Structure prediction request, 96 residues.
Amino acid sequence: MALLLTILTALLAAALVIALVVSLFIILRTLQSVRRHIEKINWGVRAIEKETEMLGGVATLNGGLTALAGGLESVATHFTNVDRNVGTVGEALLRG
Prediction:
């Protein structure tokens, strides 16, 4: 009877070890699959980073364009004054 229990215990221990090995193998395959997906995501992020690195100067460009807009508003005001003055001179010439 003791021999039978010993054999059954050894068989159950072997079955447990086999189940653990199979489970660990399945986990390993799943982790490898996840790693492949993470590598693809990493590659995509690097590609996006490379394609958008030129956008770093947008803040500087925006500041320059804001200053240019202010200058153009000043020029527009001067042209409005010139137009008004030319109109006044034109009316005076037509009357005179």
Notes: Residues 2-45+68-95 form one domain. The chain has two helices and no strands. The helical segments are 2-52, 58-95.
